Amino acid sequence: MSGNGDAAATAEENSPKMRIIRVGTRKSQLARIQTDSVVAMLKALYPGLQFEIIAMSTTGDKILDTALSKIGEKSLFTKELEYALENNEVDIVVHSLKDLPTVLPPNFTIGAICKRENPYDAVVFHPKFVGKTLETLPEKSVVGTSSLRRVAQLQRKFPHLEFRSIRGNLNTRLRKLDEQQEFSAIILATAGLQRMGWQNRVGQILRPEECMYAVGQGALGVEVRAKDQDILDLVGVLHDPETLLRCIAERAFLRHLEGGCSVPVAVHTSMKDGQLYLTGGVWSLDGSDSMQETMQATIHVSAQHEDGPEDDPQLVGITARNIPRGAQLAAENLGISLANLLLNKGAKNILDIARQLNDAC
């Protein structure tokens, strides 16, 4: 967590006393675990506040017989929660950051991005294939995933496998894997498995050269009303600087490509010695055509904070007044520059064809 003792103390002094903060979340077990972790951090910072968790189902939770890429809705896992936020039924909403579109409705912003957990994808194998890898699974083995991004990358790497859509929360997908004979393995986010305490089910973690991850994967985002300054100040100390800057670059890359869950786009980021590295790629649906590049930018995270109250604080839907504005802009520019590099090399054609084929299927 990025907030130092002074920032937390100042926030505690300025926070409303004994107010009940209403926290919106999806109903799944994983969503509740994620929300509980954010609430625990806030309770540690603000012992004078109380928190009430309000759980609800979203469109993405209700439509389980259709692949996510076919539903044609950008806010599958956020719309109902944002209605509650807009109607003042909740004060904050905890999301998996990868579920939040890069363009939010005008009245909302991401007020905190917590420290990222493992962003890579993991393979969970059917009990009879424990000890295998994707490479050593038998010919024509069926692997379940709801992600076009994963299918496009893995189909190319492992042409002997067949990939099929699998929907439902983590509990449901693991039950389908274990109790039915359809799937030899399924692909899930490592962070989700770890948060559920199911590390023992991870049979293989996919390396970036095998499968780059989704924008924002592994990080939690806290969405708030954009003009609710008290709440913005309250949650802002949860920003993790490195995670924030990596995710700004990733979201700027995706936004400039005009990508989403209906096209295969993936990223990999890292920070070292003041350099932010961003690798981004686009794929055709079958993985036969692809393009990826890497760029880097110098980031001064320790620079003095130069943002003024008159400035528009949002970048790719994120507000972070306690992180140097120059560092945020450098991260955003890196994502835009990488997107432009790919677009200039013909990425738009790959994405347009992928969209058309996905819509036609």
Automatic annotation (TrEMBL):
Gene3D superfamilies: Periplasmic binding protein-like II, Porphobilinogen deaminase, C-terminal domain. The keyword Transferase applies. One of its GO terms (cellular component) is cytosol. Its EC number is 2.5.1.61. It is found in: Cytoplasm, Cytosol. NCBIfam families: hemC (TIGR00212). As part of the heme biosynthetic pathway, catalyzes the sequential polymerization of four molecules of porphobilinogen to form hydroxymethylbilane, also known as preuroporphyrinogen. Catalysis begins with the assembly of the dipyrromethane cofactor by the apoenzyme from two molecules of porphobilinogen or from preuroporphyrinogen. The covalently linked cofactor acts as a primer, around which the tetrapyrrole product is assembled. In the last step of catalysis, the product, preuroporphyrinogen, is released, leaving the cofactor bound to the holodeaminase intact. Monomer. This is Porphobilinogen deaminase. It comes from Carlito syrichta.
